[in-house]
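Q: what sequence does this backbone want?
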């Protein structure tokens, strides 16, 4: 799309100035707009030429801060340590929120290609729940690399193995992260414990209610 396709006006009023049929795309009524003057609906007005409009006393202005995007980088990113409790949480829904915390999607300066998420500590990973018969009916597949080497396992079988709670949680969260080098790096910021104790007191992690996140 051409940069001059839309001619910005004052405080959120944008019109198409290249199309003879000028159409108001969006307009936010503010006190300053009311003070400067009213405007007529030019949505269906025909035959208007470039830079002509039926708006009274509104000047063509551009707020130079409105189109600047702030991207995080290694120097400006603010990484924290957080603790979440997985007790009685549905595994998939819980893992979605953990993946968002790892990626930093709850932050205003979220940048897709930067590790701007938090270090997440998951407690009581052995107390997650699965609805229905998913403990035995859900199947995870893997391959040994040899012919006929397809292997399958269920969440119940995976949980019964040593460190099964951690392996299950990391497997589910990994599937919700990017399949790139960045995704592998983000997964290193996840710390899963089967019990209610962890060994990261020195980092002074902040406990958050996972149910308050969307």
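A:
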């Amino acid at each position: 799309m051409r940069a001059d396709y839309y001619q910005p006006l004052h405080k959120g009023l944008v019109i198409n100035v290249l199309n003879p049929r000028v159409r108001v795309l969006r307009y936010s009524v503010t006190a300053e707009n009311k003070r400067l003057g009213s405007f007529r609906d030019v949505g269906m007005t025909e035959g208007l030429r470039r830079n002509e409009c039926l708006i009274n006393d509104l000047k063509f202005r551009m707020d130079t801060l409105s189109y600047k995007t702030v991207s995080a980088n290694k120097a400006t990113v603010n990484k924290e340590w957080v603790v979440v409790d997985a007790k009685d949480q549905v595994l998939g829904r819980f893992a979605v929120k953990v993946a968002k915390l790892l990626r930093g999607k709850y932050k205003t300066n979220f940048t897709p290609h930067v590790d701007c998420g938090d270090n997440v500590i998951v407690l009581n990973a052995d107390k997650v729940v699965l609805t229905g018969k998913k403990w035995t009916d859900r199947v995870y597949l893997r391959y040994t690399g040899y012919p006929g080497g397809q292997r399958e396992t269920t969440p119940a079988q995976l949980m019964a193995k040593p460190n099964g709670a951690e392996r299950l949680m990391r497997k589910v969260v990994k599937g919700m992260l990017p399949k790139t080098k960045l995704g592998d790096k983000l997964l290193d910021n996840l710390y899963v414990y089967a019990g209610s104790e962890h060994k990261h007191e020195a980092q002074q992690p902040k406990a958050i209610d996972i149910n308050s996140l969307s």
